[in-house]
Amino acid sequence: MIEVRYPFTETVVRNLHAGDAVRVSGRVCTGRDRFHKFLADGGECPVDLRDGALFHCGPVVVPEGGSWRIVAAGPTTSIREEPYEADAIARLGIRVIIGKGGMGANTLEACRRFGCVYLQAVGGAAALTARRIRRVAGVHFLETFGATEACWEWEVEGLEAVVGMDAHGGDLFAKVREASAARLEALGKEDA
Amino acid sequence: MNRTVTDQLAELIRINTSCLPEDVESALVSARAAATSPAELQVLDALLENAHLARDGATPVCQDTGTPTFFFTVPPRTDEVSLRKAAEAAAERATANGWLRRNTIDTLTGASIDSNALPGEMPVCHFRADPDAKAVTVSLLQKGGGSENMSRQFSLPDGELGAGRDLDGVRRCILRAAWEAQGYGCAPGILGVCVGGDRAEGYLAAKEQLLRPLGDDSPDPALAELERRVLREANSLGIGPMGLGGKTTLLGVKIAVRPRLPASYFVTVAYCCWACRRHTVTLKTEGGAL
Ligand code: SF4
């Protein structure tokens, strides 16, 4: 188990490899479809993501005592942000992307070039993920994007994830897909 | 005190949304015991801890609380309209209590139907009359969108898969569906399968197989053998939890068969994620009245 904590330096990130189990702590910001589109349209990022983590996540939140309680949270499918992510990494200096299902060739190349990793969070583990969020430090675009799409700034502690794509071109999803395709073909040759 | 049908269905939703079925949880425990890679261990540990947190806190196991789907088995002359209305009221109450996410979208406008209730349409209700039944039993299945998107229907023969109209062809279809799903449907998954039927009956019967406990076998020996074989073979694909590689890709395979037309031979695979939320209760009604 590798512990990583904000700020995520290039050295730390380049030491991670596809398949490593990690736990993320410190500041993490959420951003999903609306956020990425906004950036691509030339919008100014409201948070400093240099050496930071961007979480593809739409939480279930309830207002409580002037702040917010995160009831349930989990990763959303990341591939939808593929058209935008490489630019975001280059422009904003993001070091850690957290999501579900992996991303494409452009993001993988940006990870290699700029020193960034893609982490797979545990899909659907909503109660656990919510518990890892210790504090809501801020929220942006709440009015314009709504609570699910807003850009939340969280302090997290020990958020479980696995390195899916590393800064050396390693892509666990592609590896598993290829190996399982070969095995499927072998099963197809077996007798009925 | 006599509780209304709506009360009982709302309680069913509360339990179902927050308590992973025991057999699914113990299958995850077995998968944990078999796991060797750090990634697989980490994911399975997280799923098990999540299951405990959700049960203890009575909060949803997964943020996608799924399409609430009720399967009613009813005695003759049961008032199905009342049952449906009770299901709608229960869904609305469960949503207000945070047991269901606001999870229903008007397909054409994209607007949220915040109550998760639409007369006659949502939640989804299926009815089956049983002449021998003395009381209404109801099973609730909550299956999320990520896994629903991974369901598949094949039409045999399928040249590309080398699948003919026999059980080996069926086996090829199921393995193909498991491979295509990779980790996208939140593996490890459970496959409900229907061989035969028309397209609509195929999907319904496949989904209904997800209600079967993981430990049971098909009453048909050939299908029982196929269930075991496909489970073993799918787990040799190495896809693993969340598609990160590992020993457990599927927790179970459940196959049903339905009659078909001479021209058709469908194999329908309903993919369900590890968060296979299902629960069955018998409704208590006063003097048989709803
Ligand atoms: S596929 Fe299942 S576990 Fe994954 S997010 Fe959807 S409902 Fe939750």
Description:
The complex is a heterodimer of chains A (192) and B (290). In chain A, helix 2 crosses helix 3 (82-92) and helix 3 runs parallel beside helix 4 (105-114). Chain A is built from seven helices and nine strands. Chain A has helices at 10-14, 33-40, 82-92, 105-114, 126-132, 142-149, 172-189; strands at 2-5, 21-30, 53-55, 60-64, 67-72, 96-99, 117-121, 133-140, 151-165. The longest helix of chain A has 18 residues, at 172-189. In chain A, the strands form two sheets. Chain A has a five-stranded mixed beta barrel. Chain A has a two-stranded antiparallel ribbon with strand order 4-5. Helix content of chain A is 35%, strand content 31%. Chain A is globular and about 65 Å long. Chain B has a four-stranded mixed β-sheet. The longest helix of chain B is centred in the first third of the chain and has 20 residues, at 38-57. Chain B is globular. The interface between A and B is large, with 42 and 51 residues. The complex binds iron/sulfur cluster (SF4). Residues 62, 64, 66, 144-147, 185-186, 273, 275 of chain B line the site of iron/sulfur cluster.
In helices, the fraction of residues of chain B equals 25-40%
Number of strands of chain B: 8
Based on CA atoms alone, the radius of gyration of chain A comes out at: 17 Å
Which ligands are bound?
Answer: iron/sulfur cluster
Query: In oligomeric terms, what are we looking at?
Result: heterodimer
Poorly predicted tracts of residues of chain A? none
Overall number of strands of chain A: 9
Mean pLDDT of chain B: 95
Structural class of chain A: alpha/beta
Label the overall shape of chain A. globular
Counted by DSSP, the helix tally of chain B is 8
Radius of gyration of chain B: 19 Å
> Beta-strand percentage of chain A?
25-35%
Termini gap of chain B: 15 Å
Low-confidence residue ranges of chain B? none
On the 0 to 100 scale, the average pLDDT of chain A is 95
User: Strand content of the residues of chain B, in percent?
Assistant: 15-25%
- The chain-level structural class of chain B is alpha/beta
